[in-house]
Amino acid sequence: MFDDKLSIMATKLIAESGSTKTDWVLLRNGKILEQIKTDGFNPNLQSAGDIVAALQQQLQLKHKPDEIFFYGAGVNSRITGLLVKNALKAFFHTTKISVENDILAAARGLCANKKGMVCILGTGSNACYYDGKKIREQLASLGFIAGDEGSGNHMGKRILQHYAYNTFDAELRQYFEEHFGNDLNEIITHLYKQPFPNRYLASFAPLLADNRGHFMVENIIEDCFNDFFHHHLLKYRQSWRNPIYFTGSIAYTFSDVIRNLCDQYEFELGTIEKNPMKGLIAYHK
């Protein structure tokens, strides 16, 4: 599976995994050897066998890693962390594996050794206070069914509700039907009977990006982000004492709304990055 000709020098494999996609970067002596994207992994929705099977199909590396640093969505307990670690051990046949959650990846990638509030807004959402070394405060994450405010799947729920309950005007109904179909029974079957309902809901979010300026679209975006600010950032006194950093596809796509809300709440905005990989590479060098 791997070419070991260059294995004299230690290689590090960094993985930053959300529920939709995973970025893999292989480093040797601080330099990038390989970069690959695969589907995302979530131990709350997949077994170790599912993860191994997906890796076998999608992850083709030319060089064998000596150390693996995996950061993933859904790694929120010892049990889920061990599940991912066992899957990686079975695939890579190495024991030098570190498994952490995706919010630590965001913290290390965006803040490095600085203090800050760290937020993920992608397929799912999360937030924490990072003191420059460790995560010091973090509220419970309720996942895509009961939580994930401000995320892609949260926005997807609103979009689906607006369509199904005939709230959308003719313009947005037409867009929805052209891109996602008009058979509600089929949509509901997909949502409740197929794997990864969070990804499916998040797949509706491009409707918002493609129809900016429409008052219904702007209301959905702002309402979802306000839910995130209210249920998460406003619960931390550190939000007013430190810069707030954002990462994730949703945060990046709608960064103008986040900037406006930070101004309204009198928060200091740090940076908004599509993903934290650039900072993670620097951290692990």
What is this entry, summarized?
With 285 residues, the chain is α/β, with parallel strands linked by helices. The protein has 13 helices and ten strands.
What topology emerges from the helices and strands here?
Layout lengths: L10 E7 L3 E8 L2 E9 L8 H11 L8 E6 L5 H15 L4 E5 H10 L4 E6 L3 E6 L4 E3 L5 H4 L5 H13 L5 H11 L3 H10 L3 H6 L3 H4 L5 H17 L12 E4 L1 H5 L1 H10 L4 E5 L3 H8 L1
Parallel strand pairs: 1-4, 4-5, 6-9, 9-10
Antiparallel strand pairs: 1-2, 2-3, 6-7, 7-8
Organism: Rurimicrobium arvi
Protein name: ATPase
Given this structure, which CATH class of the domain at 11-104 and 278-284 is correct?
Answer: Alpha Beta
Task: Please give the share of residues in helix.
Answer: 40-55%
Question: Quick one: overall form?
Answer: globular
Order of helices and strands: EEEHEHEHEEEHHHHHHHEHHEH
Question: Which regions have little confidence, pLDDT < 50, spanning 5+ residues?
Answer: 2-8
Derived from helix and strand composition plus strand pairing, the structural class reads alpha/beta
> Helical segment tally?
13
DSSP E strands, number: 10
Considering the protein shown, what is the CATH homologous superfamily of the domain at 11-104 and 278-284?
A: ATPase, nucleotide binding domain
CATH fold-level name of the domain at 11-104 and 278-284: Nucleotidyltransferase, domain 5
Separation of termini? 25 Å
Which architecture of the domain at 11-104 and 278-284 per CATH?
Answer: 2-Layer Sandwich
Largest sheet properties? 5 strands, mixed
* Beta content: 15-25%
> What would you report as the Rg, rounded to the nearest angstrom?
20 Å
Sequence of strands across the biggest β-sheet: 3-2-1-4-5
Mean pLDDT over all positions: 91
